[in-house]
């Protein structure tokens, strides 16, 4: 009978299964149902494996596997601790749900917005890149994970080949390549200074180099990861890139890609650069990220663009927890990252449903959606309140932990951050309440240039009064496909479960934060030869 240790032996499969699934999906590109089955099956098996790994990490702490049996620090190490395992499970669960949503959309639309032969392999490669980044035990393998993400995400972002998508894709790729080049240069400089890129090995060797050189390397990594995480002022690219993609692509991008950058920041800050040398600047960045992002959200009429700005804004909460430098705040950050992946993805899926039902995501031109589709109203309301941090949802619990960390720190800058966090939360509530009032609550005839099809549906088929017609978009009068609704509902319920199981999840987050602050468990897992025998 296999013990829990065996789960870590199979950690490479978290990356290999999606890659093999992508290859098989491409071979089956002319067989639509078989391709969908392979893609869904690959993610189901991957999720089961990662759940097993999470249980093992929770029970046994950080563990590592050395690919090919090379002794550390020379081999490629994959490290599974509570934080990386939680991120793997959450990211794959979200990816699977979005894939089911995309499958429902494709079946309803005839795959017009996402060619099956391209979408499914690229999607699985994206998941492989995310998993590789979360498992990477050395900086170069982390870089490889980012590059896998970049390649797959460009393909997904430009599906359909429209001018807007190509333009957004070019901007996204240029910014990503610049940050990747900066990251690669930093890796080269770190190797030149220390002779290693293994993060457990660097945890000891970086402290021995010149403080000025160490600061340069520290800043370079922060900037590179800051671009990928979309922190201010490095977030200018995101609001124009994400909203142009198909709804499932936008949802998975919003939920996962920026969080990989946040994960890299947390991992390197706690493991490679412990202490508070840059905590002050990080606090300023966190404050500006929160406030500038939410002010940008309030200025938007398009729901997807508003969500893109709130995405940027709430990255500031995660940087806040990291910059506070305490185990309490770091644990809240771990919990909040998991919360935000699920809730933000849910809202982008809801945006896709709103666009399908109302013909647009411009809230000035929507109305009566609560009457037209009560289920859609519920699917919006729950994650919207969760994002705003209304008790007792997980957004409130995560923010409460972050605020507690700021209060414990007690510096003037920490108090400024606390005020900024509270203001951002209130403005987030204002932003989502405005969407509710305009798109769901008010009458369709009161909207700006309402669509006559919306009026007919909202009035139960009665002829509407003459209005200036907006664009009639496919799907206005159709019922929402069940697969899309059910998958969105499943993700909304997953977000609610973060509140129901907040006790165990915070225990896991506390344990994760303590081990990251101590550093020793991670270092010993890699350099102590916990598992140097290689993968399966």
How large is the radius of gyration? Answer: 23 Å
In what order do the strands lie side by side in the largest sheet?
A: 1-2
Which regions contain 5 or more consecutive residues with pLDDT less than 50?
A: 450-477, 529-536
Biggest sheet features? 2 strands, antiparallel
Number of E strands: 2
The CA-CA distance between the termini, in Å, is 16 Å
Q: What general form does the structure show?
A: globular
**Helix count from the secondary structure assignment:** 22
Provide the structure class.
Answer: mainly alpha
- Approximately how much helix is present in the residues? over 70%
Give average pLDDT, whole number: 85
Reading the helices and strands in chain order gives HHHEEHHHHHHHHHHHHHHHHHHH
Which helices and strands appear, and what pairs or packs with what?
Layout: H1 5-9, H2 13-27, H3 32-60, E1 63-67, E2 76-80, H4 82-109, H5 116-135, H6 139-157, H7 163-194, H8 199-205, H9 211-229, H10 238-241, H11 247-271, H12 279-298, H13 303-324, H14 327-358, H15 369-372, H16 374-388, H17 394-409, H18 412-441, H19 452-458, H20 482-500, H21 502-518, H22 520-527
Antiparallel strand pairs: 1-2
Task: Write a compact overview of the structure shown.
By secondary structure, the protein is mainly alpha-helical. It has helices at residues 5-9, 13-27, 32-60, 82-109, 116-135, 139-157, 163-194, 199-205, 211-229, 238-241, 247-271, 279-298, 303-324, 327-358, 369-372, 374-388, 394-409, 412-441, 452-458, 482-500, 502-518, 520-527, and strands at residues 63-67, 76-80. The chain is built from 22 helices and 2 strands.
């Amino acid at each position: 009978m296999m013990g829990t240790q065996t789960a870590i032996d199979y950690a490479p499969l978290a990356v290999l299964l999606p890659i093999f699934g992508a290859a098989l999906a491409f071979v089956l590109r002319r067989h639509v149902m078989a391709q969908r089955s392979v893609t869904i099956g690959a993610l189901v098996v991957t999720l089961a494996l990662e759940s097993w790994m999470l249980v093992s990490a929770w029970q046994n702490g950080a563990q590592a596997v050395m690919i090919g049996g090379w002794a550390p620090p020379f081999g490629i190490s994959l490290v599974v601790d509570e934080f990386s395992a939680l991120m793997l499970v959450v990211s794959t669960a979200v990816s699977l749900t979005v894939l089911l949503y995309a499958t429902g959309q494709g079946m309803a639309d005839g795959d017009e917005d996402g060619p099956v032969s391209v979408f499914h392999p690229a999607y699985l490669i994206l998941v492989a890149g995310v998993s590789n980044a979360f498992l990477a035990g050395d900086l170069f393998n982390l870089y490889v994970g980012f590059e896998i993400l970049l390649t797959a995400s460009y393909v997904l972002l430009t599906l359909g080949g429209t001018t807007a998508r190509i333009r957004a894709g070019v901007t996204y790729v240029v910014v990503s390549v610049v940050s990747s080049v900066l990251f690669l240069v930093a890796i080269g400089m770190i190797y030149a200074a220390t002779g290693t890129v293994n993060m457990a090995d660097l945890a000891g060797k970086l402290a021995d180099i010149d403080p000025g050189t160490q600061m340069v390397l520290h800043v370079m990594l922060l900037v590179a990861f800051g671009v990928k995480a979309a922190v201010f002022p490095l977030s200018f690219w995101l609001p124009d890139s994400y909203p142009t993609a198909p709804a499932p692509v936008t949802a998975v991008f919003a939920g996962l890609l920026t969080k990989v950058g946040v994960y890299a920041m947390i991992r390197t800050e706690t493991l490679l650069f412990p202490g508070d040398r840059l905590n002050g600047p990080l606090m300023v960045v966190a404050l500006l990220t929160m406030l500038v992002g939410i002010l940008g959200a309030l200025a938007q009429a398009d729901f997807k663009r508003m969500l893109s700005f709130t995405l940027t804004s709430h990255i500031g909460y995660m940087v806040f927890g990291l910059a506070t430098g305490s185990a309490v705040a770091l644990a809240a950050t771990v919990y909040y990252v998991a919360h935000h992946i699920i809730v933000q993805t849910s809202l982008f899926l809801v945006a896709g449903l709103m666009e399908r039902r109302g013909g647009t995501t411009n809230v000035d031109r929507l109305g009566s959606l609560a009457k037209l589709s009560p289920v859609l109203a519920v699917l919006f309301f729950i994650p919207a309140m969760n994002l705003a941090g209304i008790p007792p949802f997980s957004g409130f619990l995560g923010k409460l932990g972050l605020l507690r960390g700021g209060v414990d720190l007690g510096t003037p800058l920490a108090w400024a951050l606390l005020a900024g966090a509270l203001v951002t939360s209130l403005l987030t509530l204002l932003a989502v309440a405005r969407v509710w009032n305009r798109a769901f609550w008010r009458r369709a005839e009161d909207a700006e240039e309402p669509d006559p099809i919306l009026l007919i549906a909202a009035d139960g088929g009665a002829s509407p009064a003459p209005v200036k017609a907006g664009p009639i978009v496919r799907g206005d009068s159709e019922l929402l496909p069940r697969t899309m609704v059910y998958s969105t509902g499943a993700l909304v319920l997953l977000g609610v479960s973060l509140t129901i199981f907040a006790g165990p999840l915070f225990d896991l987050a506390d344990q994760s934060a303590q081990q990251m602050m101590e550093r020793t468990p991670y270092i010993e897992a890699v350099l102590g030869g916990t598992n140097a025998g290689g993968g399966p």
